[in-house]
Design goal:
single chain, 653 residues, alpha/beta, six-stranded mixed sheet, two-stranded antiparallel sheet, 8 strands, elongated
């Protein structure tokens, strides 16, 4: 993948247009409407607003993401969790930054489909025939489109995905043409390239600083550029961004020039300058193209959410959920639980806010937090790459200043609906934190013993014919990173709970590594044909199909004559019948024999609540349930130590 990162092709450029620019590309639908709001149209507002947009797209999107952050690829993959995976060995506390960023990105994403689709459908009101279209009808149309979009996720986007690029090419070309045809309405709008007018707006205009919250909407999709690095490559993103940025700026200039011809006026309620600059005959086509672009923007967000959650699961930051792979396309996945969550969230946003202007008031708050977290992780990445400290401090000074400014401006949206995305983001962060922290608490309990100390008794048990054979091949999933160690609970399960006699004992360990698509294994034959350890090293984007992978390993070992899997029952052995394989999966339950502090007790209770809705251990590892035995064992992380019990002798009266 690393070799293809810089590769540029026409097909790659068109795919990039379709996959990664949906969110940022549809921002002209609502940015100017949000900037103007209830203000009168005047030169300082329009030119200052465009100047802020131009320099935000330049500094925030172009410099921070396209030029700098895209350098931090993890074997060709991008996104906040890929960035976290690059630095987590150097700073354990970085996990909190990664979780906050991931939760914020997911939360603000819930509002992207509603605001883009609603803004597009509201454009119908520009036509005289639909001027009286009521909001309830628009809400119904939007819910119908969003419902259809989420319904289609289960079938994959391989076929319709090929249309995304050409449609977005038409969309960006339309933006550019509409902008160019209106710049001549008032060429003074070109003054917006001078940052002076943007600074003047923020410092002298009434509530000018708060307008930053509306300006920020022009760059909300910048995080997607980095997240989709693995799909299209760095070269295609950087080249296609030149065309995308030019189209966006031309359209903003065109809207601004058209608005300058209406100085002193106020926009009518529900009107949108994006559709008003269109010739009347073209509006219906513009609405159709805008709706298609909005659907594509929503699709990119949904696919990105699936990828984000799957990465979080592999990194042990999210409960394991069922993942489907509807097509053979690499990276194409579908998570039913997350699809339902996003659908409910998006539908709720539409029903609560109904109008795109009200959604604008809630949009952007959480994504500023995500961008702040990306800045912190990227600075840490620069530090791990031995970048000079002066440049790291310059980077932090510039982008923390910018992003905290956007954050403070967006805080005014909190009471106007921003609280919705903050609450959703908070809940998502809580899920990640509980899952991560509970694992740390559980690890205090896990006791490892030296495997070599138990090899003689395992051999004796295997040859003890007085004990009924449990299975020919007994396979345990082990969490021991050290190949010379094994969990005490596994030894207890084999020897004490109910002695499990087997011909061969297999211990299988899965190591999730930072390299996204690594898929390899190693075998350690501890005692030939009696005790074998298999270690899988899988990337955090690789599905854990242990059942199939283990079968491939065994077949490979048989072919190399490293193991004999034939049944040792005399009647079966002479007919070369393969022995049975039985997996033992050990499920934990919280024992009453714990004396945890209140906060840890709460975390563990929340963990076991989440455990009920997550995949079981065997399904999480991709095991066939017909070959799995579930064994429950008590989780004692903090044994009770202050229990006092006094023995007394009672005399018979």
């Amino acid at each position: 993948m690393g070799k293809n990162l810089h590769k540029v092709s026409l097909a790659g450029l068109i795919v990039a247009l379709g996959i990664i620019y949906g969110d940022i590309g549809t921002s002209p639908l609502y940015v100017f409407k949000a900037i103007i709001g209830d203000n009168f149209i005047d030169e300082s507002l329009i030119i200052g607003g465009i100047s802020c947009i131009i320099w935000t797209l330049t500094l925030q999107t172009t410099v921070k993401y396209v030029i700098l952050t895209l350098r931090a690829d993890n074997k060709g993959e991008g996104g906040i969790f890929s960035l976290y995976a690059l630095v987590r060995r150097h700073a354990k506390w970085a996990v909190i930054i990664g979780m906050i960023g991931g939760a914020a990105l997911l939360a603000d994403g819930i509002i992207t489909p509603p605001i883009t689709v609603t803004s597009a459908i509201e454009g119908l009101r520009t036509l005289p025939v639909f001027r009286d279209l009521d909001q309830l009808t628009i809400v119904k149309i939007v819910v119908l489109i969003i419902g259809f979009l989420f319904f289609m996720q289960q079938f994959g986007t391989n076929s319709i995905g090929k249309l995304f690029g050409p449609v977005m090419l038409i969309w960006f070309s339309m933006l550019a043409v509409l902008g160019i045809t209106h710049i001549v309405d008032d060429v003074s709008v070109l003054k917006a390239f001078n940052p002076y007018y943007g600074i003047q707006l923020l410092t002298t205009y009434k509530s000018g600083f708060l307008i930053l919250g509306a300006v920020f909407l022009c760059t909300t999709g910048a995080e997607a550029l980095y997240s989709d690095l693995g799909h299209v490559g760095r070269g295609n993103i950087r080249i296609s961004w030149i065309f995308v940025k030019a189209s966006l700026i031309l359209n903003y200039l065109g809207q601004g020039a058209w608005l300058l011809t209406r100085r002193g006026m106020m926009l009518e309620k529900g009107s949108n300058p994006f559709f008003m600059i269109m010739p009347e005959w073209f509006v219906i086509f513009g609405v159709i193209i805008a709706t298609l672009a909005a659907v594509i923007a929503s699709q990119a967000l949904i696919s990105g959410s699936f990828t984000l959650i799957s990465e979080a699961m592999r990194l042990n930051l999210w409960p394991k959920l069922k993942i489907n792979y509807p097509t053979e396309l690499r990276g194409q996945l579908y998570i039913p639980g997350i699809n339902l969550m996003l659908f409910v969230g998006c539908t709720a946003i539409v029903l609560i806010f109904q109008e795109s202007s009200k959604m604008e008031a809630a949009y952007g708050l959480s994504i500023t937090i995500c961008m702040l977290m990306t800045s912190c992780l990227f600075a840490l990445y620069l530090y791990t790459r031995r970048t000079k400290l002066i440049w790291i401090w310059v980077y932090l000074a510039v982008y923390l200043t910018m992003e905290f400014s956007f954050l403070f401006a967006n805080l005014t949206k909190f009471t106007h609906g921003g609280y919705v995305t903050v609450i959703v983001g908070g809940v998502l962060f809580l899920v990640m934190f509980v899952w991560f922290k509970s694992r740390k608490i559980k690890n205090r309990y896990v006791e490892f013993v030296k495997l070599e100390d138990y090899l003689p008794i395992l051999q004796e048990l295997s040859n003890d014919t007085t004990i009924p054979k449990f299975a020919t091949h007994l396979v345990y999933m082990s969490s021991a990173d050290n190949p010379k160690e094994i969990e005490h609970k596994i030894i207890y399960s084999v020897l004490n709970k109910k002695p499990k006699r087997a011909d061969i004992y297999w211990f299988v360990h899965v190591d999730v590594v930072d390299e996204p698509y690594l898929s390899e294994y190693s075998v350690q034959t501890v005692i030939p044909n009696e005790v074998i350890r298999v270690e899988f090293r899988l990337g955090f984007r690789v599905e854990q199909r242990i059942n199939l992978m283990f079968r491939m390993v065994v077949e490979d070992m048989v072919k190399n004559k490293e193991v004999n899997i034939t049944s040792r029952y005399e009647s079966l052995s002479k007919n070369n019948v393969v022995g049975d394989f039985q997996f033992i999966v050990m499920e934990k339950f919280l024992s009453h024999d714990n004396d945890l502090p209140i906060h840890e007790r709460l975390i563990m209770r929340l963990y076991f609540m989440l455990k009920k809705i997550s995949l079981s251990e065997e399904r999480g590892f991709g095991l066939d349930s017909s070959y799995v035995t579930i064994e429950k064992f008590p989780l004692v992380v903090a044994p009770v130590t202050n229990l006092q019990l006094k023995r007394v002798t009672y005399r018979n009266s």
